[in-house]
Amino acid sequence: MSIAANLTELKKETDAVKVKLIAVSKTKPIEEVKEAYDAGQRVFGENQVQELVTKYEALPKDIEWHLIGHLQTNKVKYIAPFVGLIHSIDSLKLLQEVDKQAAKNNRVIDCLLQVYIADEDTKFGLGFDEAIELLRTEEFAGLKHVRIVGVMGIATNTENQRQIKEEFYELKTFFDGLKQSFFRKEDSFKEISMGMSSDYKIAIEQGSTMIRVGSTIFGQRVIKHWKAGQSSKAEE
């Protein structure tokens, strides 16, 4: 099937339940991203800052770009002028840098707290206690140019669907707790980014509001167009 046909099929599922589809375009050539754009897709996710900036400059400006991979503090300045959502906030230090660079660009940048839910040595993500601790700090209270709009999590890479379901359930439960404790009056705190090509159906069942899908749209990825580097697994 073509990229357009794949998108059409996926959109039937996501539109029916009002879940946002993020097309994960990492390692994909600009021509394929444009093909998805021409088929109506407007939200794309990238892992690498350099690749994200290159594609932003080459593609139509009505695309909403999400940074879904691990973000180093020294790279924030390159995406601060335009990024639509950062999924991978995993420290107060990173959030402070996003705030600093957003201020320079007269913006408020939407962010998700990346929460560690997998039963494996995932490289990045806040523990449940760490996320709560971050939100309680005076430093966080002083940030004026970032807005926490939800959470992101990556389930264990396993065939065990019950385990995946339980991990997504934990993230949704944690989101509900944060909403009650810290964001009760914030209508903007509403996003749960969970689910990829292999497990998005389970994620939607468990309350995901946005799924990050690559291979289901573009086909299996072949790393030849970009140097992938040591990035976090944000899509299979």
Q: How would you describe the overall organization of this protein?
A:
The chain has 236 residues and is α/β, with parallel strands linked by helices. It has an eight-stranded parallel beta sheet with strand order 7-6-5-4-3-2-1-8. The protein contains ten helices and eight strands. The two termini are 20 Å apart. Strand 3, helix 4 and strand 4 form a beta-alpha-beta unit.
Quick overview:
The chain is an alpha/beta fold and 236 residues long. The protein is built from ten helices and eight strands.
Percent of residues in helices: 40-55%
Strand proportion, as a percent range, falls in 15-25%
Which sequence of strands runs across the widest sheet? 7-6-5-4-3-2-1-8
Question: How many β-strands, per DSSP?
Answer: 8
Give the N-to-C terminal Cα separation.
20 Å
List the main descriptive attributes of the protein structure presented here.
single chain, 236 residues, alpha/beta, 10 helices, 40% helix
Please describe the topology of this protein:
Elements: H1 3-16, E1 20-24, H2 30-38, E2 43-46, H3 49-58, E3 64-67, H4 76-79, E4 85-89, H5 92-104, E5 109-115, H6 128-136, H7 138-141, E6 146-153, H8 161-182, E7 191-193, H9 200-205, E8 210-213, H10 215-218
Parallel strand pairs: 1-2, 1-8, 2-3, 3-4, 4-5, 5-6, 6-7
